[in-house]
Design a protein that fits this description.
Blueprint: E1 16-23, H1 28-43, H2 49-70, E2 76-83, E3 87-94, H3 114-125, E4 128-133, E5 139-146
Antiparallel strand pairs: 1-2, 2-3, 3-5, 4-5
Helix pairs in contact: 1-2, 2-3
């Protein structure tokens, strides 16, 4: 119910949802990161540099995981960016049914800690992340970070 003279809430100009697909190959990792960075810049999203860098690292890790672990059953992946007034959410969807788990690995290993890194970045920023199954039997891994306006 609006009071007389009030202005209804309007979406912020940078809000929206964008989705793109890419082949599940190595070159898609930097391409996805650059596409997300360019989208955020084009939309004029008020995001602190540290949050932006964390978000881009999350995109790289999630796309890398889809390329390395899902490509056999999912030759294409989808990246979605949902920007709201207070949060930005990135997700990577593939058609592989395996639900990944964050592993604690030997520090001498060069891989295997991507989801741990995603969780740490997300927690440090005050966000959330999770893995969900899709209706088609695949999965979506997402992370949402709060937008912090630059002062």
């Amino acid at each position: 119910m609006e009071s007389r003279g009030s202005v209804p809430a309007r979406p912020v100009s940078y809000e929206g949802v964008w989705r793109f697909t890419a082949p599940a190959v190595d070159v898609s990792v930097p391409q996805a990161r650059h596409a997300v960075r360019d989208l955020i810049g084009r939309q004029g999203v008020p995001i602190e540099d540290g949050v932006l860098q964390g978000l881009l690292l999350i995109v790289s890790e999630l796309v890398t995981n889809a390329v390395r672990h899902a490509a056999l059953l999912s030759p294409e992946l989808a990246v979605e960016v949902a920007i709201g007034a207070e949060r930005i959410r990135v997700s990577v969807e593939d058609n592989h049914p395996y639900r990944p788990a964050a592993l604690v690995t030997d520090h001498a290993q060069t891989g295997g800690r991507g989801l741990l890194l995603v969780r740490e970045i997300t927690a440090e920023a005050g966000g959330a992340c999770d893995v969900e199954h899709t209706a088609g039997g695949g999965k979506v891994i997402w992370a949402a970070l709060p937008l912090k306006t630059q002062l």
